Amino acid sequence: MAGRQILVWQWGRFGAGPRFAAELAQALEACGERPVLSLSQQAESFASLSRMCECGFRFSGGAGLAGIAWHTLLLPLTALRLARYLERDRPDYAICAMPGYWDPVVAWLLHRLDIPLVTIIHEMEAHPGDRHAVVYHLQRRVTARSALVVTLSKHVAELAGAVRCKNSIEAPQIVLFHPPFGFADLALPPPVPPQPVLKGEPLRLLVAGRLREYKAVETALDVARRLGPGIVTLRVAGATKGHPFWRDEARAMANVQLRLEWLSERDLVSEIDAADVVLFPYAEASQSGLLPICQSRGKVVVTTPLSGLAEQVNDGIDGFVAKSPTAESIVDVVKRITDEPAILRTIGVTALNRHDPAESWYRFADELMKAVAA
User: DSSP string spanning 94-114?
Assistant: First the structure.
């Protein structure tokens, strides 16, 4: 029996959204479904992602505020083109992989055509330094038209439940998890668990990704300062917004290296592979898409005990959860790692075995479709 035809869309240009949609579509296909992927042609990795699964409707949106304004004017034409596509190749279900600016229009069209919508919610509110707070307002409109709402952590589920209750949204809601991206299209080298640090060599710490305010890079710098050059080095890699207040201080530290620029997916994984321990010193968090990537590459992660972040780590088994979101608590964890060199490899191997991308995505897609059919 042929599987169900499922439209999976995400029209973002940068970040994890397009990747999440493509890897979900690939996993649905592995589960026997018939997914059709819809991405923005301006997506950073469109060329490779569109080859991971059949790519149907291709969104074309401009860059920056001017591009958004221009495409807003063209939105009626886009909606008409999408409506014709949906009427011609009618899917059994549609999945919004990560809500964005134009999704309320898609949700309205799906509702009009009586096509059930599944919405995957990654966040419910903007964190300090986020640029897209308006998306969370638009997300509520999409959720209101959904047949099923999926969150990736219990923390987000609680926030979503409060909003759904306030707005009388009755769609069922389930909690899944954030699978690690496999990057099969990038032909990356296989992951290698960290080896015990050689005597006299410093432990290599990393903070990476979009370095927004809530990710508290200054806490990681404090960790590096307290432990000193002989014990650890800290590499801070990723894009910042403007001139972060900690940049000049970091440049003056002997055991800190900076790479403050946008990282391609390949560059991001290379930074992860070069580290021993990846820090998540966040002051706020719902969950992290980067954290399971680090685990799937066999790296030891150290995170603060915040909401969804702590849900992603089995403390002392496939990573560590600090006792508090402070430099002192993170230092205590790092000292344990340096005092017990073998633990680096033990935790890394466990993380690698527990967070296989293909297996995780298959489980995610299978649980998702069982919930859809329920």
Answer: EEESS--TTHHHHHHHHHHTT
> Is residue 121 within 8 Å of residue 138, measured between CB atoms?
no
Domain ranges of the chain: 5-180+357-373, 186-354
Q: Which residues contact 167 (CB under 8 A, 6 or more apart)?
A: 140, 144
Cβ neighbour number for residue 61 with a 10 Å cutoff: 22
The architecture CATH gives domain 186-354: 3-Layer(aba) Sandwich (3.40)
| Cα within 13 Å of Cα(175), Cβ side | 14
- Split the chain (374 residues) into runs of 10 and give each run's mean pLDDT: 86 88 96 94 84 86 59 76 92 93 91 95 75 73 90 88 64 92 92 81 95 95 96 96 92 97 94 97 91 97 93 96 96 95 92 96 97 88
Backbone angles phi, psi at 309, to 5 degrees: -60, -50
Q: Considering the entire predicted model, what is its pTM?
A: 0.92
For residue 11, report the phi and psi dihedrals to the nearest 5 degrees: -105, 25
- Pair of tokens at residue 268: 């991001």
**Local structure of 285: helix, strand or coil:** coil
Question: What superfamily would CATH give domain 5-180+357-373?
Answer: Glycogen Phosphorylase B; (3.40.50.2000)
Burial 335-347 (b: 16+ CB within 10 A, else e): eebbeeeebbbeb
Q: What is the DSSP letter of 147?
A: S
